[in-house]
Amino acid sequence: MKERRYRILVTGYAISSYGTYLNLVALNLYVYAVTDRALAVGVFMAVRLAAGFLAGLGAAALLARWAAKPVMFWANVLQAAALVLLVCAPDGMRTAALFLVSAVVGAAGTFFMVAFRSSIPDMVDEGRTTWANSLMVSGRSMAMVVGFASSGVVVSLLGYTAAFLVDMATFLVCAGTVALLPLAARAGTERGGAQEGKRESAPGKAAGRRSPGALAALATAPVIALMVALRGIDALGSSSHNAALPVYSTQSNADRPAVFVSVFWCVWALGNVLVQQVLQRWVKRDGRSVGALGFGLGTIAMSGTFILAFAGFPWAATVVIALLAGAADGVTEVSYSSHLQTLPAGLRTHAFGLSATVENLGFGVGMIAVSAALDAFSPLSVVGVAHGVAIVVAVVFVAQVLRQRRTASVEVPGGDDAGPARGGRRDGAEVSGS
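Structure (tokenized):
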């Protein structure tokens, strides 16, 4: 029953992700159509990232007072309401409504993802978090392909209003799937008790008072701090290839610049989906989590393939590179979430909230720096530097994980053969106490 409900929730999340990727195209085009200024598109994205950054800072405090279920439900309802406001806004208020939508989508989307990712261990059976994360990433990747592929058709044939209403409907569908969850989405509190159907205000307040202590505990974990930092640098690298792809595709084929971008992201998403199938079968057979080492190695592979994607290889080679980049990205996403989910319940929301803040900061700063750099340097140079930094930090991270494992195997003979969920391979998620 738990897995059936989780599958329904992932279906709703995938549907809302389709609407998000559809609107990622539609809203940017609409901002330019309303304001007739390219700068406004950048400001629109900056507002969204800034809202996500601030939401990441406050997510742990919010989830200390409220269970994950109402947070996820109202996050979807608020995004749907913001889109209704945009559709109904009079001509003179559309610019203000656009930036309000940007802020709401950025903040509510971050609250939803922090609540979702931190509560996955409570939604599925023990040892099934890697499978659950893989299913979530698969749904989002397929939604990305369909959303990007259909955005041009929906906007050109049906118009902006239809695109916004479709997105609104997807958020309401996701809210409906959240409503089908048990009354309490988080199975435990910091005392370890689980009380369905009510919010435990006293533990929540205690968690809120201990936020600095929780963050300090995270900082003392051997690998977690470096892991979150690497995630932020990875986000900076992601900003480089996102900004450089349109430039590179225009230089490669000025007559049809959208072809390369569309094909690249579709193949990337295909690689992401395929690797999730492999991960699910591997975990089911061996019962082992990918873990922190998989995150570090996956980051190295992902950054390396993204650099190669801008090296000017023939189409056939570039398609293979995009497939490998998507596969590596899928491994990093699942391994990262699965590893943070091994933290004690009282620290998970702090870890995911901090992660969301760092990721938004890395992507936002990266978009500004990369956009400026692309005016003076080639896409290959810009992407090579950004992802090169990620590779260097990832190598340091992998070395730290291996050192930690060697220490743990000496302290606990035989511990090297157990997965993180079974207490072995102590690579940084073990923080005593909450």
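The two ends are 29 Å apart (CA to CA). The longest helix spans residues 2-35.
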